[in-house]
Design brief:
Helix content: 40-55%
Low-confidence stretches: 5-23
Order of helices and strands: HEHEHEHHEEEEHHEHHHEHEEHHEHHHH
CATH topology of the largest domain: D-Maltodextrin-Binding Protein, domain 2
Mean pLDDT: 93
CATH architecture of the largest domain: 3-Layer(aba) Sandwich
Number of strands: 12
Shape: globular
CATH superfamily of the largest domain: Periplasmic binding protein-like II
Largest sheet: 6 strands, mixed
Strand content: 5-15%
Distance between the termini: 77 Å
Structural class: alpha/beta
Strand order of the largest sheet: 2-1-3-11-6-12
CATH class of the largest domain: Alpha Beta
Number of domains: 2
């Protein structure tokens, strides 16, 4: 009897183990960063649909932008990077590729029917040494985001936003009421990429350049670069039209303050639309965008995110399936219908969706094709870090704009010469 019982238990154990192997699901890890992490419900639905469709499991994390880059670097260096991750179009893809952390995607993209639908000007941001290492997922261009209600209250016409730097300063001074902690313009001063983007916006708008044409040397230590930095930082230091906590604030903080009628103007873009309405649904018809004010020529900078596959991934096939799925016409169409933004990397979705007929989106679509981009080189994150320090040193009064730029030029040239 005991022998029969042992045999029976053994059979049950073997069947159970075999069943577990049969029922085990393929699994991938996915990290998502950037402004889109705020749409938690959407991500939950998209990933659940993929899991059901493919019979797999997706272990995903939504990670805030300010800590995202550092967490990715630590994970990749430890050999524990996620199978799929989002990489900022501002130099992250070539940086990660240069370190051997990414899988080339040339073959997959050559055989995917959506490749030709991606905006053509996005591809250089995901290339490294002639190979494509990412698939752009969404994009944007930076614009002036402003609160129409605050304009009217200050006696300004919301249909006539400022066009020049002089007008920007004039409007910002009219809109500022320090006694009630109301400010005309939000200067990004926190030590993150958004501050670099802020400076680049003003630099390009003054006919300046960050690096030379072959990305081998700094090109911002010029009269155009110095004037751009001085005006950008003077909005906070001299004219006091930006909040007292400017050194801790960036685009996200100003967008939320704008939703509460505390900041009238700031740099924003298409990602801002669903987020500002989420912060305050009543602001839906009370905000707008326009080309950001310039000094010598109109300018913008595009950004966005790409999906990439880790070189360390043990399930690259499933990782590519996931990337194809989230970049499909159907998923993007659903996302836009539910969220209203941001701008898909797919041109066909942008052209077909009635959402993009809105006046705000028309400004985006008119500006995006000619927007500039950050240098697509592995050294860019280091360069950006130098620019962030340069900005903060001026905001803190440690250096003049001229002194800070001279030091930053030396540091950037050293980074590029290594």
């Amino acid at each position: 009897m005991k022998k029969e019982l042992v045999v029976l238990c053994t059979v049950i154990l073997i069947v159970g183990l075999f069943s577990g192997v049969i029922n085990a699901k393929e699994e991938i890890t996915v990290w998502v960063g950037g402004h889109i992490v705020a749409q938690e419900d959407l991500w939950e639905d998209i990933i659940s649909n993929f899991e059901e469709q493919e019979g797999v499991r997706v272990d995903y994390q939504l990670i805030g932008f300010d800590v995202y880059f550092d967490r990715l670097v630590v994970a990749f260096k430890a050999g524990q990077g996620p199978d799929v991750t989002f990489a900022d179009l501002g130099g992250w893809v070539p940086t990660f590729a240069a370190n051997g952390w990414l899988e080339p995607m040339d073959n997959q993209l050559a055989n995917w029917n959506g490749t030709n639908e991606i905006w053509e000007n996005l591809w250089p941001t995901v290339e490294y040494k002639g190979h494509k290492y990412g698939l752009p997922w969404y994009t944007d261009c930076r614009l002036l985001l402003y609160n129409k209600k605050m304009f009217r209250k200050a006696g300004l016409d919301p249909s006539k936003p400022p066009k020049t730097w002089d007008e920007l300063l004039n409007y910002a001074q009219i809109l500022t009421d320090q006694g009630n902690r109301v400010y005309g313009y939000g200067v990004s001063g926190k030590k993150t990429e958004v501050s670099t983007l802020g400076y680049i916006m003003f630099l390009f708008a003054n006919n300046g350049k960050l690096l030379n044409d072959d990305y081998s040397q700094a090109a911002f230590n010029t009269s155009e670069g110095i004037k751009a930095l001085k005006f950008y930082t003077d909005l906070y230091k001299k004219y006091k039209v930006s909040p007292s906590n400017t050194l801790a604030y960036g685009e996200d903080e100003y967008r939320n303050m704008m939703a509460q009628n505390k900041v009238a103007m700031a740099i924003g873009g298409p990602w801002s639309f669903p987020l500002i309405e989420k912060a305050n649904p009543d602001i839906k018809d009370e905000y707008a965008v326009a080309l950001h004010p310039y000094n010598t020529k109109p300018a913008s900078v595009f950004g966005g995110w790409a999906s990439v596959i880790s070189k360390q991934s043990k399930n690259k096939g499933l990782a590519w399936k996931f990337i194809k799925y989230i970049t499909s016409y159907e998923v993007w169409d659903m996302w836009i219908k539910r969220s209203g933004g941001p701008l898909p990397a797919r041109r066909d979705v942008a052209e077909d969706s009635p959402v993009f007929k809105d006046s705000k989106w028309q400004v985006v679509l008119q500006t995006f094709p000619t927007a500039g981009f950050r240098p697509p080189i592995p050294e860019y994150p280091e360069v950006s870090n130098v620019i962030q320090t340069m900005i903060q040193n001026v905001l803190l009064g440690k250096q003049t704009a001229k002194e800070a730029i001279a030091l930053a030029e030396i540091e950037v040239n050293y980074i590029l010469s290594k």
